[in-house]
Write a structure and sequence with these properties.
- The structure is a single chain.
- The chain is α/β, with parallel strands linked by helices and 309 residues long.
- It folds into two domains: 124 residues; 157 residues, Rossmann fold.
- The chain has ten helices and twelve strands.
- It has a six-stranded parallel beta sheet, covered by helices on one side. A six-stranded parallel beta sheet has the order 9-8-7-10-11-12, sandwiched between helices.
- Strand 10, helix 7 and strand 11 form a beta-alpha-beta unit.
- Helix 1 packs across helix 10.
- It is elongated, with a radius of gyration of 20 Å.
- The two termini are 15 Å apart.
């Protein structure tokens, strides 16, 4: 019988303890760890109290310069194959992995974007595999319950990162009176500096109601993503979990066409006036998109397992 590999997953999420977390990247790491029968650690204060050795494979998920995880985890497994899983094109390597690179080790990347869009230093990478990591957001066990809740169909929610590549779309839509923007308070002045004065709400509380009260979500993407395919974003899959109708800015058409989803023009907008029209005659939530997303998630996990085997 073939001996199963000993696998360690190191997630960059920082927390105060080693209890289950509700952070998106931690949840992705947990799903991958469960599927691949791997050990999982992340950045909590006691993470280095019991460093294990002789792993066959060590996988880093996401990246942070601020981590408790000690480099000794890698030193104790000098022959381990190293991988970096990332769904953020604007992130480089995790600090601990970079230390291994400087010591002469190489690694492989599993990403949801092409290598030419990434900040990762390519000369240390042996291979680059692209999979739909964003589909890991789908929660097939809870979406029927969330879908049935009463929702406000008169408000359009936008939530997502504040990035320069989205400025023109912020300015295009965010002064519309029916737009609600979920963003950290530190970003409010940045929006105001762009002459945008939307109604702000707190950041989405995924451990509480999540998107439960919203019926409509506005989907915009970075300008860079228009030409560097990145799959449909987490926001699309999270909306599926809550039965939220997603409306896409017309600049996302290339992404939509490549995604394989049958997203018709009734879900596309290109102005505030078109948003107003959609609110008067909102297209239906498509449950078959959920079924498609669940299959994507299963395929993603299977692909990762095959790549690291």
């Amino acid at each position: 019988m073939k001996k199963s590999k000993k696998i360690l997953i190191i997630n960059s999420h920082k927390s105060s303890n080693n209890k289950p977390q509700n952070n998106l990247h931690w949840l992705n790491a947990k799903q991958i760890a469960d599927y691949c029968n791997a050990d999982l650690i992340w950045s909590y204060p006691t993470v280095n109290d019991d460093i294990k050795k002789d792993y066959d494979t060590i996988i880093f998920i996401h990246a942070s310069m601020y981590s408790y995880t000690d480099y000794k985890w890698l030193e104790e497994s000098p022959n381990a194959n190293l991988f970096y899983i990332t769904n953020e094109y604007n992130l480089g390597e995790p600090r601990t992995l970079w230390l291994a690179v400087k010591a002469g080790r190489r690694y492989r990347v599993i990403a949801n974007h092409p290598s030419n869009a990434s900040k990762v230093v390519q000369k240390y990478v042996d291979s680059w595999e692209t999979v739909n990591l964003n589909s890991l957001c789908v929660n097939e066990n809870t979406y029927p319950l969330n879908r049935s809740k009463d929702k406000d169909l008169n408000k359009i929610l936008y939530y997502g990162s504040y990035r320069e590549g989205r400025y023109r779309y912020f300015q295009k839509y965010f002064n519309f009176e029916n737009i609600v923007v979920s963003s950290h308070k530190k970003n409010h002045k940045k929006f105001h500096d762009l002459e945008i004065t939307p109604k702000f709400v707190s950041r989405i509380a995924w451990d509480k109601t999540g998107l439960g009260e919203y019926g409509v979500s506005l989907y915009i993407e970075d300008e860079k993503t228009h030409t560097h395919y990145n799959y449909l974003a987490n926001r699309f899959y999270e909306a599926l979990n809550y039965g939220v109708v997603t409306l896409f800015d017309a600049s996302c058409l290339t992404t939509i066409e490549k995604s394989g989803y049958d997203i018709g023009y009734e879900y596309i907008v290109d102005s505030v006036s078109e948003l107003e029209e959609k609110l008067r005659d909102l297209p239906k939530f498509k449950e078959n998109w959920v079924e498609q997303a669940v299959l994507e998630k299963e395929s993603c996990l299977k692909q990762i397992a095959e790549i690291i085997s």
